[in-house]
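Q: A reviewer asked whether we had any structural model of the full assembly, not just the individual parts. We don't, so I'm hoping you can provide one. Inputs are below.
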Amino acid sequence: MSSTLSTQVGVLARRAMLKTLRQPFQLFPIIFFPLILLAVNASGLKAATRLPGFPTSSYVSFAIAVAFIQGGMFALINTGTNLAEDIESGFFQRLALTPMRRVSLIAGLLVGVAAIGALQSAVYMVMGLIAGAHLDAGFAGALVILVLGALTAVAFGALGCAAALKTGSGEAVQGLFPLFFVFIFLSSSNLPRNLLRTGWFHTIATWNPISYLIEAFRSLYIFGWDGPALARGFAVAIGFTVIGLFAVALAMRSRLQRT
Amino acid sequence: MSEMGNNGIEVDGLVRDFKGGVRAVDAIDLRVAPGEIYGFLGPNGAGKSTTVLVLTTLLPPTAGSARVAGLDVVRQGAEVRRAIGASLQESALDPFLTGREHMRLQSSLHGLGKAERDARATELLERVGLTDAADRKVGGYSGGMKRRLDLGLALVHRPRLLFLDEPTTGLDPQSRAALWDEVRRLATDGVTVFLTTQYLEEADVLADRVGIIDRGKIVAEGTPSELKAAIGRGSVEAIPRDPGDLERLASVLHRFGEDAAASPNGVAARLPEGVSDLAEIVRTLDAEGLAIADLRLHAPTLDDVFLAKTGRSLEGAGDENAKDGQQDGGGRGRSGGEDEQTLASSGT
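A: Here is a predicted structure for the entire assembly that you could use as a starting point for your response.
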């Protein structure tokens, strides 16, 4: 008697979602932190829309893209912390004692993360529209945002899983938060790259893959359908996912030594 | 086919080393017969949990071989996991899931169909006395409830062999007794139970046979009565009414036998002739004018066996092993569980 891969992934995904949804202290920052930052930035940097070359007259439409990336960062922290807690509590060992396949454990977690990622993206979209953002790409664009939001959460979530498997410590995973926050800050999050006049900042933002992820979300709000921007954004999300999964595979080898 | 058939355990020359050259398990051999409750007794850091991790396939051995339920733990890991159930140290539960959700998760991962899953969850929750708490989040469970759920989860797929790693550590006496009853019931049903414990009483009362492990080596093995009979002698402990008489009391008792472990305010001696020495001891104490507050006769215990085999008491050995940096976790308290009889509580 043995469960199928899809059953294993399904039950572990459900458990990952329940674990997040039943922890208000995890859910609250996911939903509200990006929206609060959006409100602060939108009111403080509204004047930036008057700069020559700024692509839109609505700063909310410009800045809402950052919320999706911040949501991804929370996916990293929450997924990594939850997995590290499982390792610390022995729950990981309990799962390892079942006929569950190694791939199911991470796949289950990441499917759960994808679902939460899509859910949080929907919330950001709705709140953004209420705050006055205009989604130029329309309903189809909203669907693309849900997909890219889910993929971004998976990409960051995989990195969180790798950190958890490597360190086995929730505190160590949470220590990554400031690092990724710096990555967001040193990107085109607050101004379009063509308006970043400080040379070193422009260079870093151009090399920073987070810029392209943000610009993919942003393009759907401001320009409608911008194929190259979307392609670069998806490439970054997929690239992060691949790197994250590779790191997970390496870390899993030493963490799960079962025969 | 293994000589132990489908429910037994056979271990030959099993070694497990950790980084830094620490040898947690040092060439142990053991046999557990089908349907037997085997108690694996030892102090913290002795190598009990490492042995369990190897036998449950969670850790590969450095050398040696082990067959569990007739299956090789290295080459047939997946098959071993299907045959065994395990409740490892600590109750590894998700505080945000309910007891029933745990049951469903575990049974789904073991491949039970939906109808069977629900029926099995209900049956096991009832069996471990958690029907009323089944739909409450585990975060609100007591330690005893968590341990019982842990045991129930280990039984979801009807394993032929059950590993219980210190299942009653931290439990109150009532919860401990309830868990013992359940383990006995499982053995009656034909399940082989491999139980690690640092509680002497638990091994004594529950196990058909006991293996005593210290510093990675099995130092004694047999039924509890065989092991105690091999020691052959009980001990007498006396507590003087006047603490100032402790030294004089010690010199008197030493005429009857060598030192034995005693409480801080008493003296104990091992009795070469057992109970028959007692009358003479009482007469001598009386003749010496020593007023005794308490006099106890201790039948041989597994601690005496441990002392005889290692030169140390089981109680202090855990701390020493922890200093040696061995791998078993723990550091928790334990009860003595001695088989003793108070003979007097006033002066002789």
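A: Points you may want to mention in the reply: Chain B has a mean pLDDT of 83. Residues 170 and 342 of chain B are 27 Å apart (CA to CA).
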